[in-house]
């Protein structure tokens, strides 16, 4: 094997979205020489897609808001499965993280008195989301990007080199975390542009790679969301937590096919949009669950009055939590009352004058006009559920973001589990990125500084990683009897179809078992995924390598979903439709079945993943005291209440 | 409209050379150019290099030139072409090519580094920033930029004159200077940095001849020329071509220099 | 590459060595040349017409109307215009058409106008002829050096244009007289002048320099509410600067031509009252 270039850094951050960049800034400011590796160009991360805002209890719009209320909302949203210490830190630190962005040049929308404006959002008791129109994610990523540039300018003034202490390796993919014994020693990566391999030696690695949506056919996620970080952590020996919880956003575009899955923001419904089936009926009135009966309108008239007078009327059922609306749409389509392209109708055109629509929903107006040639001021949109976010992720320590069992490995953002429990509230993801991105960067820098000797990078591991990465080029020659090599694009499409159909929004035991069999078969075929051409910017090769990650993560989702025999948040079992208090204190951890790091296991039953059940830490009494007893009995088991 | 077969010419090659390759490819209702490129990858040219991300016009990755015009592939609907038209897709022609439709956009990242960052005002802590909506509106428009670099690509100052690249920041980064100069709390002045002057002296504002191609290609509809570049030129005029100001600065500067 | 490989053109610009090897200067398939061609034709027509009229030194006054090309008239050889915009500032040594004295200001204003710059850089200089169409020049320095650096004095022409607009307003007021200088009359010419002066004002006020001066230069609009309102108003006009530039160009030529027709006796001004 040709010599692979090596560089030494103190902290390596994998991923350059909100969490990764915030971690890098923190690590660099704490004195660590920090490298960031990202698959796309710097500043293109999926964070730019976030529209709504950053949830932080700054109390700029409603003075009653504080961290305790935010904490309560977060736990309710997550159905009490949240890692409560994370939710506490998140609620307490989010305002500081938002204010800090202003000192780096962010320009949020303002209140009349010049403070950061905050907007209402589903599940938040008070107006809480700091925002910039409907492009808050872009503002976040650009601010962090520009902060990084400003740190590089500082370094340039001092050392003459922009990249002496903080460098972004853009368009590079990490395929393996390298270890020295149990400790992290670096990462193995390739440059997408040239296909060249390189190793960054570092005692601390922060994973901030986002989610897993590209394992599903209909998703609002970009191509980068192949579960890389989840898989890297698993392969490095760290467990994944509660992977069964996947959020499906109820309103994604369904037509045209090219934009299927792209998000239609919740504000459309918040501003008066209604859902109708093919018969023209506002079907959501038929889907209000008993626990919400008192809180939602029973007639269209009452629901319509709510927009003008929310104090004396109950809100329309279109504004139920995301999981409820997504399930309802799913049922209508299955019952044959869907729209021509398999969704339902979301209509604002008959609800507001055209000019008001254009003013209040400018980006939705343009999105439909430009992508679907639909004028939403004149006709209804077609929408359906789309895979949006994974609540599960790398099991981490709440305070330090350290991955369990692998010293030197940290995780933050969507790739980390725990914070959102079984369901995430809108707006809590951007604040999550900032709060835990900072904590991960901080503790990674501290970990790196506290080590006596740097962990060594083992040549054998580098060679193995290189061989693994080159495998797709020799798929044909390896086993001529097995037939021609598999097309990675075909494999990917089959994987997405399987996950969508069998482990999608509504889950059944038999289907998930079937999914595990299909995944096993795909795994066998994926070993023969072959590519043409050479290593220079070869997307077929990149996909072939990402398949390993998607298959691992998909198996985690399927296995955990099969195990959890209840419905909670982002996990709905048709055969176990109710929430079960006995499952509340139970975490499901996924680990690699063959911890030696090889991926030889192809036994469909055993698979690559083993599940471990674990009891959650009891919620600290002072945090529990923030809730009324009547509310707690809905969620907690008897014995938890009296501890 | 149902599916049909379209003729595509896609530039393939690298810095050593290359050319337009002909393809016949299926097109379905509602698709955009990026869908067709993806179909080529999945069926005919698995190693066709292309950069893309969000596929919703929000990240600015899939910039290319379609029938000679700089555009986002994900925002160019196939329905704008006739069915018998041959659609030519090439990489951005202002930047070095890497492979196929992927170019080296490092020029832009280099220019981004040359614009001094936001200078926070002294004595105003986090949480104490007070800014009014009318004061942030202008800079907010510029912050809509998704950095697709189509403006940088189309700008003839560098597109047609490679030698101007060192001296000229390009519309995107002159707009960044304008954004910071209009930021209500940017304290560059207090730190001794005159953004209006450096716009011309260091970022090459004078090269811009306001022919508005940057505005024409901007997928975000930002009025780059009218709201950023021309106001910046006027601000530079305040500093450099206003005879009274000029005289004042000459008188004041002389003793300081000596 | 298997198909269509061609040798790298390796000349400058889009055919620089490092860029994608495409020899065509552009691959646009639309009628990109139409806009610059129309612009060039329009501007050329105006230049021809205005040169003829400016040097003609005749047929520019027909009471109560004075051609906007000759107002104010500042030499001794001006026609007598009762209480009109003439003042003998240049005396008798000025021998050629008095239009030349004053036309320099509106001409300078339009020549350095941000819209007209775009228009003639594209259509006359082909720099660039259209977006993503390679320009034919080997070297380009933009407005960084003499003479184009002088474009920066646009705002001084704007001040001058304000004064000229005031004079033309005065002329329009005078057009409410009859041929015997009695007030309270109106003819077709008055209407032509009203339209013209409105467009002249709208064009002048929609100027980018004006927008800068009234408020654009401010850092905090919140501290200057009146100037903020003014800036917003000018901004709305400024969005139509191109339209106003053309409309006022045509209207000023028409106003002059109308006076020419009257003065040369082609017909008499129809009077409304």
Share of residues in helices of chain C? 40-55%
Helical/strand content category of chain B: alpha+beta
Number of strands of chain C: 2
Order of helices and strands of chain C: HEEHHHHHHH
Number of helices of chain C: 8
Helix count of chain B, per DSSP? 10
Give the amount of beta strand of chain B, in percent: 15-25%
Mean pLDDT of chain C: 93
Termini separation of chain B comes to 77 Å
Task: Give the class-level CATH name of the largest domain in chain B.
Answer: Mainly Alpha
Helix and strand arrangement:
The complex is a heterotrimer of chains A (643), B (258) and C (273).
Chain A: E1 5-8, E2 11-14, H1 18-29, E3 34-38, E4 54-55, H2 67-77, H3 84-103, E5 118-119, E6 129-130, H4 136-159, E7 166-170, E8 172-180, E9 183-191, E10 197-201, E11 204-207, H5 228-235, E12 240-241, E13 246-253, H6 267-270, E14 274-276, H7 300-308, H8 322-334, E15 344-347, H9 354-360, H10 362-372, E16 381-390, E17 393-394, E18 409-411, H11 428-450, H12 459-470, H13 475-478, H14 488-502, H15 509-526, H16 539-563, E19 586-592, E20 609-615, H17 621-624, H18 629-635, H19 638-641
Parallel strand pairs in A: 1-10, 2-3, 2-11, 3-7, 11-18
Antiparallel strand pairs in A: 4-6, 5-6, 8-9, 9-10, 12-17, 12-19, 13-16, 14-15, 15-16, 19-20
Helix pairs in contact in A: 1-4, 1-11, 2-3, 3-11, 5-16, 14-15, 14-16, 15-16
Chain B: E1 4-14, E2 17-27, H1 33-43, E3 63-66, E4 69-72, E5 86-90, E6 97-99, E7 102-103, H2 106-114, H3 133-142, H4 150-154, H5 156-159, H6 171-182, H7 195-201, H8 213-217, H9 224-240, H10 243-257
Parallel strand pairs in B: 1-5
Antiparallel strand pairs in B: 1-2, 3-4, 3-5, 6-7
Chain C: H1 34-56, E1 61-62, E2 65-66, H2 99-111, H3 114-123, H4 154-174, H5 188-205, H6 208-216, H7 225-238, H8 241-263
Antiparallel strand pairs in C: 1-2
């Amino acid at each position: 094997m040709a010599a692979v270039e090596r560089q030494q850094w103190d902290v390596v951050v994998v991923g350059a979205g909100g969490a990764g960049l915030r971690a890098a800034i923190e690590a660099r400011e704490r004195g660590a020489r920090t490298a960031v590796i990202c698959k796309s160009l710097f500043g293109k991360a999926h964070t730019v897609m976030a529209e709504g805002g950053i949830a932080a209890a700054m109390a700029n719009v409603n003075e009653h808001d504080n961290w305790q209320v935010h904490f309560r909302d977060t736990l309710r949203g997550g159905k009490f499965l949240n890692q409560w210490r994370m939710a506490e830190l998140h609620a307490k630190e989010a305002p500081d993280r938002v204010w800090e962005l202003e000192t780096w040049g962010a320009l949020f929308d303002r209140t009349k008195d010049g403070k950061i404006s905050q907007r209402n959002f589903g599940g938040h008791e008070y107006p809480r989301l700091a925002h910039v129109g409907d492009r808050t994610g872009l503002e976040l990523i650009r601010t962090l990007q520009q902060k990084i540039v400003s740190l590089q300018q500082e370094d340039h003034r001092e050392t003459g080199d922009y990249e002496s202490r903080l460098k972004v390796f853009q368009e590079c993919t990490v395929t393996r975390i390298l270890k020295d014994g149990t400790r992290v020693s670096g990462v193995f990566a390739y440059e997408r542009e040239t296909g060249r391999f390189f190793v960054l030696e570092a005692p601390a690695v922060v994973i901030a790679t986002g989610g897993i949506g590209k394992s599903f056919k209909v998703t609002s996620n970009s191509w980068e969301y192949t579960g890389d970080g989840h898989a890297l952590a698993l392969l490095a020996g760290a467990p994944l937590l509660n992977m069964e919880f996947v959020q499906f956003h109820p309103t994604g575009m369904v037509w045209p096919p090219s934009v299927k899955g792209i998000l239609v923001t919740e504000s459309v419904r918040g501003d008066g949009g209604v859902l109708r089936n093919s018969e023209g009926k506002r079907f959501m009135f038929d889907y209000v669950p008993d626990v919400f009966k008192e809180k939602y309108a029973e007639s269209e008239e009452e629901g319509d009055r709510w927009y003008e007078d929310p104090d004396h009327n109950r809100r329309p059922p279109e504004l139920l939590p995301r999981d409820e609306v997504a399930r309802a749409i799913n049922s209508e389509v299955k019952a044959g009352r869907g729209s021509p392209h398999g969704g339902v109708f979301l209509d604002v055109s008959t609800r507001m004058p055209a000019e008001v629509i254009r003013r209040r929903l400018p980006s939705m107006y343009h999105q439909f006009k430009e992508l679907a040639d639909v004028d939403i001021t004149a006709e209804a949109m077609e929408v359906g559920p789309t895979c949006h976010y994974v609540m599960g992720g790398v099991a981490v320590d709440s305070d330090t973001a350290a991955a369990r069992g692998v010293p030197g490995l940290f995780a933050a953002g969507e790739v980390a589990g725990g914070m959102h429990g079984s369901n995430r509230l809108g707006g809590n993801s951007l604040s999550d990125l900032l709060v835990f991105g900072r904590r991960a960067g901080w503790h990674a820098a501290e970990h790196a500084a506290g080590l006596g000797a740097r962990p060594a990078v083992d040549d054998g591991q580098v060679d193995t990683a290189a061989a693994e990465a080159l495998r797709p080029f020799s798929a044909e020659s390896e086993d001529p009897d097995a037939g021609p090599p598999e097309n990675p694009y075909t494999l990917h499409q089959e994987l997405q179809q399987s996950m969508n159909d069998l482990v999608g929004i509504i889950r059944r035991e038999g289907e998930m078992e079937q999914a595990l069999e299909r995944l096993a078969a795909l795994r066998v075929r994926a070993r023969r995924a072959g590519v043409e051409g050479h290593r220079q910017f070869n997307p077929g090769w990149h996909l072939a390598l990402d398949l390993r990650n998607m298959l691992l993560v998909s198996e985690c989702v399927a296995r955990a979903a099969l195990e959890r025999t209840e419905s909670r948040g982002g996990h709905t079992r048709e055969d176990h439709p109710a929430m079960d208090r006995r499952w509340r204190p139970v975490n499901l951890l996924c680990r690699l079945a063959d911890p030696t790091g090889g991926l030889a296991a192809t036994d469909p039953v055993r698979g690559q993943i083993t599940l471990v059940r674990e009891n959650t830490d009891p919620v600290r009494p002072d945090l529990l005291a923030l809730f009324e007893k009547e509310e707690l009995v809905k969620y907690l088991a008897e014995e938890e209440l009296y501890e | 409209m149902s599916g049909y077969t379209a003729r595509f010419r896609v530039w393939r090659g690298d810095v050593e050379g290359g050319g337009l390759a002909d393809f016949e490819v299926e097109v379905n209702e509602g698709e955009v150019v990026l869908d067709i490129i993806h179909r080529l990858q999945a069926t005919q040219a698995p190693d066709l290099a292309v950069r893309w991300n969000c596929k919703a016009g929000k990240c600015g990755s899939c910039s290319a030139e379609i029938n000679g015009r700089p555009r986002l592939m994900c925002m160019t609907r196939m329905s704008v072409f006739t069915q018998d038209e041959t659609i030519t897709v090439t990489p951005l022609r202002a930047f070095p090519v890497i492979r196929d439709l992927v170019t080296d956009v490092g020029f832009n990242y280099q220019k981004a580094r040359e614009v001094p960052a936001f200078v926070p005002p002294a004595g105003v802590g986090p949480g104490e920033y007070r800014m009014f909506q009318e004061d942030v509106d202008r800079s907010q428009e510029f912050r809509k930029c998704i950095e697709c670099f189509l403006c940088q690509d189309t700008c003839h100052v560098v597109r047609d004159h490679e030698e101007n690249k060192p001296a000229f920041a390009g519309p995107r980064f002159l707009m960044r200077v304008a954004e910071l100069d209009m930021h209500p709390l940017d304290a560059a002045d207090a730190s001794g940095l005159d953004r209006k002057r450096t716009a011309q002296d260091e970022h090459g504002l004078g090269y811009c001849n306001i022919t508005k191609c940057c505005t024409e290609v901007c997928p975000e509809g930002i009025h780059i020329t009218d709201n950023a570049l021309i106001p910046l030129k006027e601000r530079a005029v305040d500093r450099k071509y206003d005879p009274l100001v000029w005289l004042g600065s000459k008188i004041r500067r002389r003793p300081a220099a000596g | 590459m298997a198909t269509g490989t061609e040798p790298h053109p390796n000349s400058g610009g889009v055919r620089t060595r490092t860029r994608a090897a495409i020899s065509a200067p552009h691959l646009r398939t639309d009628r990109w040349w139409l806009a610059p061609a129309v612009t060039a034709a329009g501007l050329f027509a105006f230049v021809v017409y205005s040169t003829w009229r400016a040097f003609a030194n005749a047929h520019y006054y027909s009471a109560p109307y004075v051609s906007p090309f000759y107002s104010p008239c500042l030499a001794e050889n001006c026609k007598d215009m009762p209480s009109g915009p003439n003042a003998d500032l240049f005396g008798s040594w000025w021998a050629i058409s008095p239009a030349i004295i004053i036309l320099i200001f509106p001409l300078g204003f339009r020549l350095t106008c941000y819209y007209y710059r775009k228009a003639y850089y594209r259509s006359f200089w082909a720099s660039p002829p259209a977006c993503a169409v390679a320009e034919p020049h080997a070297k380009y320095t933009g407005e960084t050096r003499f003479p184009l650096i002088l474009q920066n004095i646009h705002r001084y022409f704007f001040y001058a244009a304000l004064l000229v607009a005031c004079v033309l307003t005065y002329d329009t007021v005078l057009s409410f007289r009859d041929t015997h200088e009695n007030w309270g009359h109106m003819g077709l010419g008055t209407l032509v002048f009203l339209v013209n002066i409105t467009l002249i004002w709208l064009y002048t006020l929609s100027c980018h320099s004006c927008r800068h001066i009234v408020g654009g230069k401010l850092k905090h609009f919140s501290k200057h509410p009146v100037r903020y309102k003014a800036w917003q108003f000018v901004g709305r006009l400024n969005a139509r600067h191109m339209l106003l530039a053309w409309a006022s160009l045509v209207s000023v030529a028409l106003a002059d031509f109308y006076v020419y027709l009257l003065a040369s006796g082609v017909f008499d001004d129809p009077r409304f009252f």
